[in-house]
Amino acid sequence: MTQLLTVERLSKTFGGLEAVADLSFDVSEREILGIIGPNGAGKTTAVNLISGVIKPSGGRVLLGGKDVTGHAPHTLVESGLVRTFQATTVYAGQTVRENLLRGAFRDIYPGLLATLLDTAAARAARHRTFGHVEEVMQWLDLARVADHVASSLPYGYQKVLGMGIGLAARPRLIMLDEPAAGLSAEETDHVRDTIRLVRERGISVVVIDHNMRFIADLCDRVLVMAQGRELARGKPQEVLRNPVVIEAYLGKRYAQAHH
Ligand SMILES: Nc1ncnc2c1ncn2[C@@H]1O[C@H](COP(=O)(O)OP(=O)(O)O)[C@@H](O)[C@H]1O
Ligand SMILES: [Mg+2]
């Protein structure tokens, strides 16, 4: 498989705290990589570093073989890397369709002058964008609420919409920070099915969660983090059986429930 994302010896210190330390991993095309670990393990910081929200203290990030370390988030979106946030981030007062069109902004404005002149090229680009947004709504089962205001949707749908805004930008890789946090079992299933569908469209996924069950069912490989570092990695079933992981992360409760 071709490597799409390569993270090399990434680190970030806040004052004296090593939030991410010497972290290396890669993500292949069409792969779903899970990152799990307890609160404070450094998962969100890792995503922030990769997506350009904060700058690393050390290490490199390569996308499609190109060094993109420290690039601004919007530059990375143009390079095909998008991420969602742990907290739901939708435009509350706008409809589902309007939210998705915002995600596709770079398609709508392919050149300001062309847009102002309303050239045939600009019209064609707009047409393609609207088509793509309709398609994203189909994948995510949002078409029937296309004209609903985002804030009126159940929380689970708002989370899926947040993912949709990222997908509207036509990424090669999407990083999802706790897409199932706070969702009901049914909503969690919907999110999981949606992530599988995203991969089937040829998009790579990095998904963070602390629900081992959710990650194990979904991911090709899992990276376990603790205190900023890699604790283990491998196929979900290997990681689930790894004594180091069971002891350090899953704890007694998990071990008892499974013996
Ligand atoms: N901007 C920041 N300034 C200082 N410390 C931070 C900052 N962001 C995160 N941290 C600290 O870094 C560690 C890792 O946090 P985080 O990446 O949010 O963990 P996770 O997402 O795995 O729960 C925590 O100890 C957290 O308090
Ligand atoms: Mg986090």
Descriptive account of the structure:
This protein has a six-stranded mixed sheet with strand order 6-7-8-3-9-10, sandwiched between helices. 42% of the residues lie in helices and 24% in strands. It has 259 residues and is of the alpha/beta class. α3 packs parallel to α7 (155-167) and α7 (155-167) packs parallel to α8 (185-200). The chain contains eleven helices and ten strands. The chain has a single domain (3-257), classed as Rossmann fold. The longest helix is centred in the middle third of the chain and has 20 residues, at 120-139. The structure holds adenosine-5'-diphosphate (ADP) and magnesium ion. The site of magnesium ion has 3 residues, from α1.
Task: Describe the secondary-structure layout.
Elements lengths: L2 E12 L2 E12 L3 E5 L6 H8 L7 E6 L2 E2 L5 H7 L1 E3 L12 H8 L1 H4 L3 H6 L2 H20 L15 H13 L5 E5 L7 H16 L3 E5 L3 H7 L2 E6 L2 E6 L1 H6 L1 H15 L2
Parallel strand pairs: 3-8, 3-9, 6-7, 7-8
Antiparallel strand pairs: 1-2, 1-4, 4-5, 9-10
Bound molecules: adenosine-5'-diphosphate (ADP) and magnesium ion.
The site of adenosine-5'-diphosphate has 11 residues, from strand 2 and helix 1.
